[in-house]
Structures are given as structure tokens and as C-alpha cells.
Design a protein that fits this description.
The protein is α/β, with parallel strands linked by helices and 396 residues long. It is built from 13 helices and 15 strands. Strand 2, helix 2 and strand 3 form a beta-alpha-beta unit. It is globular, with a radius of gyration of 21 Å. The model has no long low-confidence stretch (mean pLDDT 95).
Length: 396
């Protein structure tokens, strides 16, 4: 029986716990939960109908539970701390993306893995597992459009989704690295994986346009205490019907973190719009954009090859699509995508099969993959700061 401990009573790790309970209980047992807030851990246990022993001290939890595997889902800035400790303690670990948020943390993780090369560690880049992403990967690897010359990737976050990052700790770069690391690590990882190459150059522009203090004449601390809530265009409500109440508010005490922070707060320093140019070692050029204030939600991803073009589109309110435009053929070929059940369009289920099951799809992201994804986001931040082209691999 593999003993599993959780670092961070987060919304994201709930999917892992549900899967372990429903599909892998024969081989995995949850033995410990660690967070800085006791009330949040109590709410976490109650909401999932479990009773994992709770700790606020990592050393104590490790001593008392002797875990074989850590699930690391804390605030992004602290991922490095627990990955390094897990490796040095010879404990396997799975870290939610992004792996870390700055170059010093990347180096620390690389050094820890070099010290402990036999300890299993992975990054949970579940976006690789969506059926549309898997289909694009297969087509590219098969040479369906020949040699890829360029790609275009546009991520559109609708107002509800986009504003959620600016209500939470993600809005501070010190904790998240900005959306270019926290959110875009998924996208950069997919590009690296699809293109079978490493990013070598990055140039970037970006702005904070629709959130932060310049976007509104007023602001408060939290929506539930704000005197301006009646005239706010982006109010949030933590009601007893949603998971934010169940996890954050039910046992909150004075000073507890609640994810309804003001989206116009002066402390926000993360850009809500990014435009990025990426050059890969194999010569492919990529134009990437992210906007967190869109009127539609989804992504458009195009690959131009010397024998055709692939178009992948996803929308929040419609099934994903993949089209191939082949040279000499007037009409595009529509690739059938069988819808898959489960969170993140069925991607989580397939990720968990790789992590906890007996089979391996070959898609699981390693720590090196996680670092390469984070490196693009770090290079974006460097380019925004310096206004220059960044040599990505030299950052390490």
C-alpha cells in the first residue's frame, strides 16, 4: 500500500483525492494533509467525506505518517520547497503545475534531482491529455503536414475565468510569476511537447489593462466587505452553494484567506494581456497570446507545415475541433474527436491513469518538462522587464 500525503488543501488536489478514492484505493492510502490553515483542512475533509490526519508542520507530518508519495499543491512560490525536501527525503512527489516560479527555484530543483536521480518526480501537466491535444500530437508526429515551420497559439480567458486569477493570490507575481507562468505553463508545455524541441529565444510585450487600480476609480479588500459592491462591474459572491464556501469560508477565522479579493486592488502586478514570440531550437517560430478579459473563452492553435495546416479550436461552450488543410485538397479534413467524460474534458482521468495506474502512455511530464515550460514564462518576465530578446536556455 502506497501512503500518500497532500501539501496544500487546494481546490485542484480535490480531483486527485476523488480519483484515488474511487479508482485506486486498493493500492493508495491517504495518510496526511498539511496546510497553514486548520479550518481549511477541516473543510477539505468534510467536503470530500474523508478524515485525513491534519498537520501544520511538514517535519511532523513526515515523521508521523512516513509517506511514500507527496502531492504538492500549495501556492506556486512554495512548490520548490516541498519538491526539494521530498527528493532529499527519498519520497516520490507529484507537483501541480507550474513547477516553480523563478530561475533560482528551477536551479534548486535541478540540483535536488541530480542528488536523487532514482526518486520518482513528475509535473501534473494534464493539458497534454485532452483528446484534442493528443490528436494534434499524433498528427504532427506522423508528419501529416510535413515539416512544421510556424505556429500560432491564442488563449482566451472569459471574464469569469480571467477575473478569478485577479481575485486570488495568483495576481501577485512574487507568488505566481504572473499568468505567463501560472496559466501559460500548460500552453508552453504543450508547444514544447508538440514540437519535440526546446525554446531558445523569447520576446514579449504585456500590460495590465482590465484589472488593477487603473481599471477602476474605486477598490476594496474583499467583495464580501466592499462598500462599492453595488456599482462594481466584476463582483464575486462566496455563497453556501459553491466550493469556495465549502473550502475557504466555512471555517474561516479573522485573517483567513478568501478568494474574493478585489480585482482592482493596488497590489495586483500581473499582466492580463500578453503577446509573445518564441523561437525553437528546431527553427519553428511561434506567436503566442493570452488575454484574461475576453468575451469568448477558449483557444485557437494553428500549425503551418510545408505540406499543410492543422487548426485546433476549443470553446468553453462547444466540443473541440481539429481540421487539416492538406496541400492540393480544397476542403479541410475534419478529424473526429470522441468526447471523453470527466474533469478537464477527460484529461484528468488519463493523467491519473499514468500517475496511479499500471499502464504508461508516455505523456507524463517530467521535472525537466516542467522546468522547460516555466523557463518560457520566466523569459517572458525578463523580456517585459528589459524590453529585449531573451536567450531562454542561458537563464539556467
Amino acid at each position: 500500500m502506497i501512503k500518500v500525503a497532500i501539501i496544500g488543501a487546494s481546490r485542484r488536489v480535490r480531483a486527485f483525492v476523488k480519483s484515488l478514492k474511487a479508482d485506486y484505493a486498493e493500492n493508495y492510502r491517504l495518510v496526511g494533509l498539511m496546510d497553514i490553515e486548520a479550518g481549511k483542512m477541516r473543510a477539505f475533509n468534510e467536503s470530500l467525506e474523508i478524515d485525513i490526519p491534519c498537520f501544520t508542520d511538514f517535519d511532523q507530518m513526515c515523521r508521523e505518517t512516513q509517506p511514500d508519495l507527496l502531492l504538492v499543491t500549495t501556492v506556486d512560490y512554495y512548490h520548490r520547497d516541498y519538491i526539494v525536501q521530498a527528493l532529499d527525503r527519498q519520497i516520490s512527489c507529484i507537483c501541480e503545475k507550474p513547477l516553480c516560479v523563478n530561475i533560482g527555484q528551477c536551479r534548486d530543483i535541478i540540483e535536488a534531482q541530480a542528488r536523487n536521480p532514482k526518486v520518482f518526480a513528475a509535473t501534473s501537466h494534464n493539458a497534454r491529455y485532452h483528446i484534442a491535444a493528443r490528436t494534434v500530437k499524433q498528427l504532427l508526429d506522423e508528419g501529416a503536414i510535413g515539416k512544421v515551420n510556424s505556429a500560432y497559439y491564442a488563449e482566451m480567458l472569459g471574464w469569469d475565468h480571467g477575473s478569478s486569477y485577479f481575485r486570488r493570490w495568483n495576481r501577485q507575481k512574487a507568488l505566481s510569476g504572473g499568468l505567463q507562468i501560472h496559466k501559460s505553463s500548460h500552453h508552453f508545455d504543450k508547444l514544447n511537447w508538440w514540437l519535440n524541441s526546446k525554446p531558445v529565444e523569447v520576446t514579449a510585450t504585456g500590460e495590465l489593462r482590465c484589472y488593477g487600480p487603473k481599471a477602476s476609480p474605486f477598490h476594496g479588500e474583499n467583495c464580501h466587505t466592499c462598500p462599492h459592491i453595488a456599482k462594481c462591474p466584476l463582483p464575486a459572491e462566496i455563497s453556501k452553494n459553491n466550493i469556495d464556501f465549502e473550502l475557504f469560508a466555512k471555517y474561516a477565522t479573522e485573517g483567513s484567506y478568501l478568494p474574493d479579493k478585489c480585482v482592482f486592488s493596488p497590489e495586483i502586478d500581473s499582466e492580463d494581456f500578453l503577446s509573445v514570440g518564441i523561437k525553437y531550437a528546431n527553427g519553428v517560430g511561434v506567436n503566442y497570446s493570452l488575454a484574461a478579459h475576453c468575451n469568448i473563452a477558449g483557444e485557437d492553435i494553428f500549425f503551418e507545415g510545408d505540406k499543410g495546416r492543422i487548426e485546433m479550436r476549443r470553446r468553453s461552450n462547444a466540443p473541440a475541433s481539429v481540421l487539416i488543410y492538406r496541400d492540393g485538397v480544397k476542403e479541410p479534413e475534419n478529424i473526429e474527436l470522441a468526447e471523453e467524460a470527466g474533469s478537464h474534458g477527460g484529461a484528468d482521468k488519463r493523467l491519473f491513469e499514468d500517475l496511479f495506474g499500471n499502464a504508461s502512455s508516455g505523456r507524463l511530464a517530467t521535472l525537466e518538462d516542467g522546468i522547460q515550460a516555466v523557463l518560457v514564462g520566466i523569459a517572458v518576465n525578463e523580456s517585459l522587464k528589459n524590453g529585449s530578446k531573451i536567450d531562454v536556455q542561458s537563464l539556467l
